[in-house]
Structure formats: structure tokens, C-alpha cells
Amino acid sequence: MSENVEQSIIAIISEISGYEPEEITPDKNFYDDLEIDSIKAIEITVAIEKKFKVSVRDEDVPNITTVRQAVELVTQLLNP
User: Does the structure show a pLDDT above 60 at 16?
Assistant: First the structure.
């Protein structure tokens, strides 16, 4: 399951950031490696919420800085 979550999140990040999916690895930092600003971070969050039908708390958004953290959070939300 988490592999599908990871692939879906990478696809979302790729679409919004403009980076190729192959360039987006679990340890990439959104801000340092993928040049994602706060507006793109919100777009990614909204896309993830729609895709997985989960709700990410606003206070969690600034703490998610890597692809791996995003995957872990979604996995937790899907399996409470």
C-alpha cells in the first residue's frame, strides 16, 4: 500500500513542481531540492487531500519537508 501512496504523492509533486518523477526520491527536501515554495506546498497538500480523501492539519504542513514524511503522514491518516 505505501508504495502506491509514494508513487501517487511523487506524481502529485512532479505535476506541481515540474520535476520529473524519476528525480523525486523519498529523501528529497521540498524546499531545498525541489524548489517548492509555500504556495506550491499548499497546492500539493490540497491535491494529496483530494487524492486520498484525508485531511492534513494546517499545523502539520510546515513540518513535512521530505517526500518520505509526506508518505508517512498519508499512510498514518489512511490507517488510524
Answer: yes
Half-sphere exposure in the Cβ direction for 9 (13 Å, CA): 26
Domain extents for the chain? 2-78
- Cα 73 to chain centroid distance, Å, stands at 9
Q: Are 54 and 48 in contact (CB under 8 A)?
A: yes
Neighbours of 1 (CB within 10 A): 8
Averaged over 1-19, what is the pLDDT?
Answer: 91
CA–CA separation, 38 and 62 (whole Å) = 9
Q: How many CB atoms lie within 10 A of CB 39?
A: 9
For domain 2-78, give the CATH number: 1.10.1200.10
| pTM of the model as a whole | 0.89
Which residues have C-beta within 8 Å of that of residue 15, sequence separation ≥ 6?
47
